[in-house]
Design brief:
- It is found in: Membrane.
- GO terms for molecular function: gamma-aminobutyric acid:sodium:chloride symporter activity; metal ion binding.
- It holds the Pfam family SNF.
- With about 750 residues, this protein is mostly helical.
- It has 2 domains: about 100 residues, no CATH class; about 475 residues, Hydantoin permease, CATH 1.10.4160.
Length: about 750
C-alpha cells in the first residue's frame, strides 16, 4: 500500500492529515482500523471516494510541477549558450548599426504603441540628424546661390562684395536662422501654431509665413519646369538648339552664335564672325542677341509681346510643370522621414557637380582671367557704397530663406534637445560655401569665354560658355541637373510648410496627410498655370519681384517683436537653456547657444536690419520691367497686392483671436501665453523656475540621447495638462493669484 496522506474528519469538523501505515507492521492499529470500518461503513465508502479524487489531484499537480521544472532546466542550458553567441554577434554589429542609424537607413527600436518615426503626440520625427541638416541645406541653398550671387559680386567689385556679405550673414542671417530653428524645435509646432502659443494675438505671423511660402513656391516651381525642358532637349540629343542660329525661331539678322564664330575663326582666313550663316570680317552695326537667349524666349517661353496678350497655352511648360508637381507630391507623401531620405541625394549631388564643374572650369584656357577678376582684383570702393550693402543684406535674407516658415517647420520635427545651433552653423556655412565656390566656377568659365570671343569679361554672355567646351553634352547635363536638384529640394520644403501649418491648425487632418499634401500640390500647380501661357514670363516677373519681399521682412521683424519684446528675453533664454542646458564656460555665456550676444542681436540688430530691408524692398523708382519692356501700372498694382496680402494675416488673426477669447470669458487671454506653451506653468507663476526645470529633466529622463532618433519620446501633452489642472485647483483652494511675470 502506498504511503500517502489522507484526510480524516475530527469531532470539530476539521480535516486533518494522517499518514497511512503498512498493515503487516502494526497489528493493534490494524484491529482498531477494522472495528472503525465495520461501525462506519457508509462513511468510509464516501471518504474513500474522496481520498481517491484528492490523491489523483495531488499526484497530477506534483507531476506537472516536476515536468515544468525539468523542461525549464532542459531549455536553460542551450538558451545560455545561445545568449553568449548573440552577445558576441551584437558586439561585432554595433559600429555598423550606428552608422546605418546615423544616415537614417536603419530604424531604432520604438515603443509598440507609437507609429514609426512619431513621438507620443503623433508628430513625425526625422530619421536622423543628417537628414534634417541636408533638408535644411537643400532648402536654403537654391538657384540664387549659382546665378544671383555671382552676378551681384560681378556688379559690386568682385571679392570686395564678400565683406558686406559676410558681415550681414554674421549679424543678421545666422542669428535669424538659429532663432527660427530654435522656435520650431522648442514648441514642436509649425508656423501656424508656434506664435499662437507665445501670444494668441500674434498667430497671424505664422500664417503670413505660410502664405508667402505658398506664393513663392508657386512661381519657383515654374523655374524648375523650365530647367526640365532643357533636360528634355538634352535627353533627346537636341542640345544644339540653343547654340546655333539655324532654327526656325531664330532671327537671322539679330542672332549670333559663339560656335559659328569659332568655326570662322578656326578657318584662318581673317573672317572672325558669322552672319547669316556666312563668315564675315565684321557684322553690321545693330542690336544682336545670343542664340541661347532666343531659344529661351521663343522656344521655351514662346512669349507674347505684352502681358495683355494671353492667347495660347504653352503646353510644354504646362506638361513640365505638371510632372514636376507629381514628383513633389510623391516626395511629400509620407512626410519628413521620406523627404529626409530624398535629401540624402538631392542636397549632396549638387555639391559633387559644382566640384566637378569647378575642376573643369579652372583647367580651361585663360580661366585665371575670370578668377582674378572675381577674387584677386577686388574693387574696394564698392564697400563704401550703400547700394552694395543693400544688395548684400537682401541676398543674405533671401538666400538663407529666413522669414518663410520653412526652417521653423522642419525644426518642429526634431527632438526637443536636438543641437539645432550646430545645424544652423552648418547650414549657414554650406550656403555661403555654395555661393562663393559656385562664383569661382562661374567666373572661371567667364574668363575662358572672354578669351574665345575676344571680348572684355564684362561683355561676356555666360549662358553659352558650356557649349564651347569639349563633351558639351555632358557638362550641360551636369549643370542643368544641378539646377533641377537645387530647385526641387527647395520646393519640397515650400509645399511641406503649407501642409504642416494646415495639420497643426487642424489636427484632424494628420491621418489624411497624403491627401492633404496632394491637395496642396494641386493648389500650387493651379495657381502657376497662368505662368504657362504665352504671357507667363510677365506674370513670373510680378510674382518674383513682389511675393517674396515685403511680407518676408514684416514676418522677420514681427517674430522678433513677439518673442523678445512681448514674451520676454528672460523667458526665451530660459527656454533655450531647457533645451541646451546652462552655459558651462564664461565665453559660452556671451556667444554660446544661450549667450548674451544672440539676445542683444535679436533685441536690437536683427529688427533694425529687417526694417532696413523692408524699406529697401519697398523703395521703387521705376515700374517693373522684363528686359526693356515696362509692365503697365495695373500689373504693378497686382504685384503690390500679392506682396502685401500675406501681411494682412497678422491683424486679421489678432482680431479673430480676441473675439474667440472674449466669447470664452476673457479677451485679455489673447495677450497672455497660451496654456499649450511648454513653459506656461513657469511663465504664469504656477511653478518656480527650479521646479519647472526639474520637471523638464524628469520628463526627458527616458528620452533617447541620440539626436534625430525616430523613436524618441517627448513628454506627453496629457501629463502636462494633468499637472496644469492640479496646479490650478491648488491655486484656487488657497485663494492665491499666480505670480505675475513681466513680459
Amino acid at each position: 500500500m502506498s504511503n500517502f496522506q489522507r484526510d480524516t474528519t475530527t469531532k470539530t469538523g476539521v480535516k486533518t492529515a494522517i499518514p497511512e501505515t503498512d498493515e503487516t507492521t502494526n497489528p493493534s492499529t490494524r484491529a482498531t482500523e477494522e472495528n472503525r470500518k465495520s461501525s462506519k461503513s457508509e462513511e468510509s465508502t464516501k471518504q474513500g471516494n474522496h481520498d481517491i479524487a484528492t490523491t489523483i489531484t495531488l499526484i497530477s499537480a506534483d507531476s506537472n510541477n516536476n515536468l515544468n521544472k525539468v523542461l525549464d532546466e532542459t531549455a536553460s542550458a542551450p538558451r545560455d549558450a545561445k545568449k553568449k553567441r548573440i552577445l558576441v554577434l551584437n558586439k561585432l554589429m554595433t559600429i555598423t548599426n550606428k552608422l546605418l542609424t546615423f544616415v537614417g537607413l536603419k530604424k531604432k527600436k520604438k515603443p509598440a504603441d507609437l507609429e514609426a518615426g512619431e513621438n507620443a503626440e503623433g508628430r513625425q520625427r526625422w530619421g536622423s540628424s543628417l537628414q534634417f541638416i541636408l533638408t535644411c541645406i537643400g532648402y536654403a541653398v537654391g538657384l540664387g546661390n549659382i546665378w544671383r550671387f555671382p552676378a551681384l559680386a560681378f556688379k559690386h567689385g568682385g571679392a570686395a562684395f564678400l565683406i558686406p556679405y559676410v558681415c550681414c550673414s554674421f549679424f543678421f542671417g545666422f542669428p535669424l536662422l538659429y532663432f527660427e530653428l530654435s522656435i520650431g524645435q522648442y514648441l514642436q509646432s509649425g508656423p501656424s501654431k508656434a506664435f499662437y502659443k507665445f501670444k494668441p494675438i500674434f498667430q497671424g505671423i505664422g500664417w503670413t509665413m505660410t502664405f508667402v511660402s505658398l506664393l513663392v513656391g508657386t512661381y519657383y516651381s515654374v523655374i524648375i519646369a523650365w530647367v526640365g525642358i532643357y533636360l528634355y532637349y538634352l535627353f533627346t540629343f537636341q542640345y544644339d538648339k540653343w547654340t546655333t542660329c539655324k532654327n526656325e525661331w531664330n532671327n537671322k539678322d539679330e542672332c549670333i552664335s559663339i560656335l559659328a564664330d569659332q568655326e570662322c575663326l578656326a578657318a584662318g582666313k581673317g573672317l572672325n564672325y558669322s552672319y547669316h550663316g556666312e563668315c564675315v570680317i565684321a557684322r553690321p552695326n545693330g542690336t544682336y542677341r545670343a542664340a541661347a537667349e532666343e531659344f529661351f524666349e521663343k522656344e521655351v517661353l514662346r512669349m507674347s509681346d505684352s502681358i495683355e496678350s494671353i492667347s495660347n497655352m504653352n503646353w510644354q511648360v504646362f506638361s513640365s510643370l505638371a510632372i514636376m508637381w507629381i514628383l513633389i507630391a510623391f516626395g511629400l507623401w509620407k512626410g519628413v522621414r521620406h523627404i529626409g531620405k530624398i535629401s540624402l541625394f538631392t542636397a549632396t549631388v549638387p555639391y559633387v557637380i559644382i566640384a566637378i564643374l569647378f575642376v573643369r572650369g579652372v583647367t580651361l584656357e585663360h580661366a585665371s582671367d575670370g578668377i582674378n577678376f572675381y577674387l584677386l582684383k577686388p574693387d574696394f570702393s564698392h564697400v563704401l557704397k550703400i547700394d552694395t550693402w543693400r544688395s548684400a543684406l537682401i541676398q543674405v535674407c533671401f538666400s538663407l530663406s529666413v522669414g518663410f516658415g520653412g526652417l521653423l517647420s522642419m525644426a518642429s520635427y526634431n527632438q526637443h534637445t536636438h543641437n539645432c545651433f550646430r545645424d544652423a552653423v552648418i547650414v549657414a556655412f554650406a550656403d555661403s560655401f555654395m555661393a562663393i565656390f559656385g562664383g569661382i566656377a562661374v567666373f572661371s568659365t567667364t574668363g575662358y569665354l572672354a578669351h574665345v570671343q575676344g571680348k572684355n569679361i564684362s561683355e561676356v554672355i555666360r549662358e553659352e560658355a558650356i557649349a564651347t567646351m569639349n563633351a558639351s553634352w555632358l557638362w550641360a547635363f551636369l549643370f542643368f541637373l544641378m539646377l533641377f536638384l537645387l530647385g526641387i529640394s527647395t520646393q519640397f520644403v515650400y509645399a511641406e510648410t503649407v501642409a504642416t501649418s494646415l495639420m497643426d491648425q487642424f489636427p484632424r487632418l494628420k491621418p489624411m496627410r497624403a491627401y492633404l499634401t496632394t491637395g496642396t500640390c494641386i493648389l500650387m500647380f493651379l495657381i502657376g498655370i497662368i505662368m504657362c501661357t504665352d504671357a507667363g514670363i510677365y506674370w513670373f516677373i510680378i510674382f518674383n519681384d513682389y511675393t517674396g519681399s515685403f511680407s518676408v521682412c514684416v514676418a522677420c521683424v514681427a517674430e522678433i517683436v513677439c518673442v523678445l519684446y512681448f514674451y520676454g528675453p528672460k523667458n526665451w533664454r530660459k527656454d533655450l537653456q531647457s533645451m541646451f542646458g546652462e552655459p558651462k564656460y564664461c565665453i559660452s555665456k556671451w556667444i554660446g547657444r544661450t549667450g548674451y550676444y544672440f539676445m542683444a542681436n535679436w533685441m536690437v540688430v536683427s529688427p533694425l536690419l529687417g526694417s532696413v530691408i523692408f524699406v529697401f524692398t519697398c523703395w521703387r523708382t521705376e515700374p517693373t520691367k522684363y528686359g526693356n519692356k515696362a509692365l503697365p501700372i495695373w500689373a504693378d498694382a497686382i504685384g503690390w497686392i500679392l506682396g502685401l496680402a500675406p501681411s494682412l494675416c497678422i491683424p486679421i488673426f489678432a482680431i479673430v483671436n480676441i473675439g474667440i477669447f472674449a466669447r470664452k470669458g476673457d479677451w485679455k487671454d489673447a495677450f497672455r501665453v497660451h496654456e499649450s506653451h511648454r513653459s506656461y506653468l513657469r511663465v504664469r507663476g504656477l511653478l518656480s523656475t527650479k521646479e519647472w526645470s526639474n520637471r523638464e529633466k524628469i520628463s526627458y529622463a527616458g528620452a533617447d540621447e541620440d539626436d534625430g532618433d525616430a523613436a524618441g519620446k517627448s513628454p506627453s501633452r496629457e501629463s502636462s495638462f494633468v499637472y496644469l489642472r492640479t496646479a490650478r485647483s491648488s491655486s484656487s483652494r488657497l485663494h492665491t493669484r499666480p505670480r505675475s511675470v513681466s513680459c
